[in-house]
# Entry
Amino acid sequence: MLKKDQAEEVLETVDAPLEMETSIKRKPRGRPRRSTRENILRAAKKVFSRSGYDGARIEKISKAARSYDSLIYYYFGSKEKLFVEVLEDAYRDIYEAEQDLNLNLQDPVAALRKIIEFPLRYYVANPEVIVLLSTENLQKGKHIAKWPTAHQYSRPVIDILQGVIQEGQAQGVFKNDIDCKKLYIAITALGYFYVSNRYTFSAFLDTDLMQEDSIHEWAAYISDFVLNQVLVSA
Amino acid sequence: MLKKDQAEEVLETVDAPLEMETSIKRKPRGRPRRSTRENILRAAKKVFSRSGYDGARIEKISKAARSYDSLIYYYFGSKEKLFVEVLEDAYRDIYEAEQDLNLNLQDPVAALRKIIEFPLRYYVANPEVIVLLSTENLQKGKHIAKWPTAHQYSRPVIDILQGVIQEGQAQGVFKNDIDCKKLYIAITALGYFYVSNRYTFSAFLDTDLMQEDSIHEWAAYISDFVLNQVLVSA
Amino acid sequence: MLKKDQAEEVLETVDAPLEMETSIKRKPRGRPRRSTRENILRAAKKVFSRSGYDGARIEKISKAARSYDSLIYYYFGSKEKLFVEVLEDAYRDIYEAEQDLNLNLQDPVAALRKIIEFPLRYYVANPEVIVLLSTENLQKGKHIAKWPTAHQYSRPVIDILQGVIQEGQAQGVFKNDIDCKKLYIAITALGYFYVSNRYTFSAFLDTDLMQEDSIHEWAAYISDFVLNQVLVSA
Amino acid sequence: MLKKDQAEEVLETVDAPLEMETSIKRKPRGRPRRSTRENILRAAKKVFSRSGYDGARIEKISKAARSYDSLIYYYFGSKEKLFVEVLEDAYRDIYEAEQDLNLNLQDPVAALRKIIEFPLRYYVANPEVIVLLSTENLQKGKHIAKWPTAHQYSRPVIDILQGVIQEGQAQGVFKNDIDCKKLYIAITALGYFYVSNRYTFSAFLDTDLMQEDSIHEWAAYISDFVLNQVLVSA
DNA sequence: AATGAATGAGCGTTCATTCAT
DNA sequence: GATGAATGAACGCTCATTCAT
# Structure
């Protein structure tokens, strides 16, 4: 198991993840005074995303929030409910970031490129989210399954993609038979996997996938990869 | 948190994952008499892949192996060392399955199609492996990092891909500028992600990605997706 | 341990105990507007008598009083002091009920019968008191020991008994050598025990001692039992 | 709340309860080597009977048994199951003591006197049992209710009483219309209550009911009290 | 190699109590 | 006096691990 000291020293380092473009990070709410509830939520995100659900310790969360174990129960009721709230927050953050892409529909190729690179950039900038999603998948999606509004987030996101595709088709630059849902999965997969499996794959391929160069190369690669798929062949 | 009974009743069901093609499953070693060590290892794989490292309980492993906690320490020394052995086994299994693909080099398109579909099929048939890899990535690859032979497994795998690509290029059906390493990552991503995030993405898209139809559609989709990338345009 | 829900649902039912004679119940103070202090005290009696001292929760008391934890400390200082006040109230209530017996001294046999049946009837109607006394005895009477006026309540009660006995002796119906203190203990024992040990004794004897019939039979039985002791043999 | 030190210092004193006759104490199993399970059970009896169910602390039990918290769960599963076992033991002990009374049926008056005095003597010698029974009644008999064999203990006990009564009737010294069940309750009440409410009643009456003299007086008093009831009037 | 008891740290949670408006 | 957030100890229980046959 993890030695305590090891875990301890890791504690502060995760906060500064690799970034590609700051614009893609969720807006920092850098208000000087934060409520205890907020502190706990932020600390919980940190700790859950560092250790997963089972590995996370209530005490660690409360201390990271400079608060008390009991206040976690006061505000959230249980470790699990706290986790769910962290997870929901993460979803909301991704969703908001997607809405903030500021796409120029007049240029569907550039817009699509932005969409393609978004997941990679987002997860590179916010790798904690991957642990949260991982944890949720490890638990067979039991929380999200009970969360009735989950798929309401997907609609607008896929609509955005579809809007771009349709504009491209109208302009005659994109193919006509494009399955937007599948395309969306493929785009997400190519960005997410690169980050989620960075450790095992780096070891496996004997290179550091998280070097800035590698990330940029991969961003360009998957951009071309997906665009090739969509563009009408010259 | 998981109720005990819930966890208990899940215990036996996970063993029969959705299968696409039995040929892709690792060979069952159905010998009637197994050593205690083997029993523990198999039980550990089950339990680790159901609950992750932190969620796994030594007692659950020992009971699933019809053995004793203390024998786990006798044979493996610690929970962590047991996990590492399970992880290594999983890697070896994937490797062996990749070696067993029986590709016909004379038909590089068909061979490549097989390679593309392999990760999806493998992870659909053996989803436990995903939890193991997830867990290892959650722990920042600390075990695989110390495992010097890890990347020795990647060489032959990428060689196989390269062989197929080169044959296709020789036959004039594949493009010339193909980065095999990146292609390999892309192929793995498209298969792995679909399975690893099946719960959150199913909820998100409001469809059951694990239905047999969906899986086959996805297999066909990514096959075309990647082939399109590689084939010389008509 | 008690499930929360179980405890919760019991919460309102206890208020309506088995009654023998309404005249024996403490006078309900059914005023529409009660002070917070009073509310807390009443809620505390309810909760303490349902769960004992250690089982009672401050939060449960404050919620039952539609008030706040902190007001309990504001008004009473501590859980223990609140308990003491509840206990004192209970003693006062018993005392007052004893004073309200309205005995007809001219008929000492009837009067004695009333006295004999009083404890049984009172505890059947107010079984919570038993839990309070039980709790106090469990704590070795530490509160009542410090309560200097406690035995001032016994004097009048035993005086009443003695008055009746003397009148009976004067009329020649009661024996001459009667120890009123011991008689009082015996009377109380025969009524109190029947209620205090109703659960264990019901199971032990495999009958429901709290059925109305059983209670009436017991009332008659102990009445005769004690009277036999006191009456001059025919 | 109880100060720790107060509770602590009480810890060892309870072990030496007031005794009337040693012959009535449960046989001490003074074997030099006791199993951990036995140690825990004995310690649990001590602690439960000192503090009640809610007041008892697992840690206190484990320490009193010179063992570990976890072993309590290893052997008994939960605090509640441990309590049930303690309670069952207490019942069994009483039962065995009742069987050991060695009554001389030829002398029914002496035999009945022994029976009458038994509860008082037993509870004086083993006052812990009262706390256990109190606690069980506080919890509305939830454990004993589920204990199907509980009332099997009452049969033989009442049979003994009935045997003595019948012999007395045959000899013409006892009245004919005697309800043995009610008589048994009365006998128990007169002994039990004196001990169970010793603290509150001592304060109330301003005498120490537990002085040896008082106890002997009470034993004689209730003996006469009940015998008077049963004997044919001279 | 098998069996089960022992060891001790630590975890999620709850509690009585106090503080600050 | 009302409201609710803060404080910190402790509780029941579980865990990985080791010991002794």
